[in-house]
Amino acid sequence: MNTIQAIKIDVATQSVYIVEIPESDTLNAFYDHIHCNMVSHFHLDDYHGCYVDDEGFYNEHPGYWSLSGFRQPIAGNGMITGADVMGNTASVKREFIEWVKENVTFYKEGEVDLEPEIIFISF
After folding, report:
1. Which residues lie closer than 8 Å to 61 by C-beta, 6 or more apart?
2. Strands 39-43, 15-22: pairing kind
3. 12: Cβ–Cβ under 8 A, 6 or more apart, which residues?
4. Rounded to an integer, what distance in angstroms lies between the CA atom of residue 2 and that of residue 31?
5. Other beta carbons less than 10 A from residue 11's beta carbon
6. Which of 10, 58, 64 lies closest to 33, judged by CA?
7. To 5 degrees, how large is the angle CA 27–CA 84–CA 50?
8. Mean pLDDT of the 42-65 span
9. Residue 116 predicted with pLDDT over 90
10. pLDDT of residue 117
11. Which part of the chain is the DUF3846 domain (predicted)?
């Protein structure tokens, strides 16, 4: 079985580490590691992206986290992977874990303002 290396942002242990997930079943691996039934994805750079619980603020999680440069805290665990030139899920670049460790902030329940922010943009 082929695997890819992903970065797990673990709110329960407030740690960031590499996990191996099956290349043939990444979606179910995301569900297992994030502890959710639906994921959302956002880009971190031209190669890396992060998967999170799409219903994170509606589900119970042991904590929250954020990355430098992003405005909104994230509820629950996150999984960061790479993407090849065809858009297929790929292993993270090994040095990227250090950037994540240096730029992640963990929060416990009650330490973040969970009020949604509405931003109006005019064209």
Report:
1. 11, 35, 53, 75, 76, 77
2. unpaired
3. 62, 63, 77
4. 19
5. 21
6. 10
7. 45
8. 90
9. no
10. 54
11. 5-103
